[in-house]
Amino acid sequence: MMSSFNKSNKPSPKQQLQYHCASQEIDLQFCQWPETRFELVNGQFLVGGSLEGTRWLLKEALLGWGLDAAISFAPLDQWWEALRQTYDLNCQSETDWLVWADSLPLSEDYRNSPNQPLGSRYIGQHRWVRDHLQAVLMSAVGRAKLGKCSGPNYGMQLGPDMLTPDLLMLTVQQLAQDIFHDYYVETPAHLVIEIVLPEQREVDEQVRRVMYGQAQVAHYWTVDPVEERFQFWQWTPEGYQSGQLDSDGCYRGVESLSFSPEIFWLGYEQDVSPYTQKLPAMTAKEQPRPWTIERMPGMELGYGTVPFRPVVDLMPQSISVEQFVSWCPETKLEGPPFPLLGGETGTRNAIAMALMSLGLVETVKLAAGYEWVRSLRQVARYQQADSQRREIWWQQAREVAVGLEAEHGVGGVGVIGALVEDRPLNRWSQIHLVIWDVPEDFNLWQFWQTLPQELPFELTEAVRALPGEWQEISGQMQVLEGDWHGYGPRPQERMTFRWIEPND
């Protein structure tokens, strides 16, 4: 089917998207935006499955948040050196840089802009099919207690990589290994399903299939929402083999599951809920032994586990799985300013991981040279007043700490973060206070409204601190008021599998 399509004179999906973007200005942003999917591959933070998507996200962040949002993550000397290497310059003094910047045309194009749209005009169909199929899969698997379904934006760890399939299914036998967590699973899933974006077809049907095959994902399905077509793949030692429908039109390649593509597309087109559809698209044989997943005491890698200390240099720096899981923000683009990813903290984290993956030499190609010179000079002037600004911040921190203890009965107040670190305050710095022995009637939200609005405050109750914050509390916190008695972190919990015994 695909070969006959390619031999015709009909434009490819990617060409159709380019024509569509050119003629439909109102939809241009959706054509240009990559799929909102964050992953870790080869130590790189990928957006929409590619480093080009990461470059797009960082460029949008520079436009929406300002260049200083990126400059904050590396010393100024490194940024100047990145400009030297990128433009093959020998500028040393401020005068040299000003002369060079003044010689650049105001119409200077940003380099490394995408040569083609990164997104799809079928993103709506993609979302609808994914949601409908997720309901079908979860309904059948959940009723039969065959395992656990997750996705989208749920991680699947493949060695040093972390992928986020549209949908995945884990069997009971896999769950019994206690590898299932809040944010990710430590093993290749039994079944992975990807909804194809027609313009980016090669990502799902070629690149991801190779990766899933190397990881020995037992079953891999791709779904084309435009052509309304499923492809089924089963892993063998020789690689993926195509799965076929039985004579009744059902696919039974996955143990204990029977799936009818015809019934699925009928329910999808009629927008019938999988939970109320009289003839279900998927049925399953019930798992004979009952089980449950409970939250039990234990340590689990999750958001905020690792302190936020990104390493940014001229060349790309590898991101670990622990860093990715701890820092990765919500996959939801909002604004203004655009892009806003899970608030300012999530946006900060995404910018830092993009910088680590691209390096400064590539990053400076995303904005005009004169803009970098202007912003770097502004940051330099800002840093010249760092000691005075820091003194003001310390004074405010002490005044707030006194008020917390004297007026609100808080047992103690300490400070962590930017104020106790040996580097200049920057765009993302905050006065981060930690409080403990807090009275039950203390209203944190109401108190927040009384803080000086012109200064960036962060307030954390010690008993609610994330594991990464606890590392800072135990290692660098300076006590401002009260006594710190070496309180321990709050008890951690993790997802734990348990077979249900007859006498339970």
- Please outline the major beta sheet: 6 strands, mixed
The share of residues in helices is 25-40%
CATH-scheme architecture of the largest domain: Alpha-Beta Complex
Low-confidence stretches: 1-8, 17-27
Mean pLDDT reading: 89
How many DSSP E strands?
Answer: 19
CATH class of the largest domain: Alpha Beta
- Overall tally of structural domains: 3
Number of helix segments?
18
CATH superfamily of the largest domain: tt1808, chain A
Report strand %: 15-25%
Q: What is the fold-level CATH name, i.e. the topology of the largest domain?
A: tt1808, chain A
The 3D shape can be described as globular
Radius of gyration: 26 Å
Distance between the termini: 54 Å
The strand line-up of the biggest sheet is: 3-6-8-9-10-11
Which structural class do you get from the secondary structure elements? Answer: alpha+beta
Structural summary, described in words:
- This protein is of the alpha+beta class and 504 residues long.
- It has three domains: 14-114 and 325-381, no CATH class; 123-297, tt1808, chain A (Alpha-Beta Complex), CATH 3.90.1570.10; 386-482, Beta Polymerase, domain 2.
- It is 39% helix and 18% strand.
- It contains 18 helices and 19 strands.
- The termini are far apart.
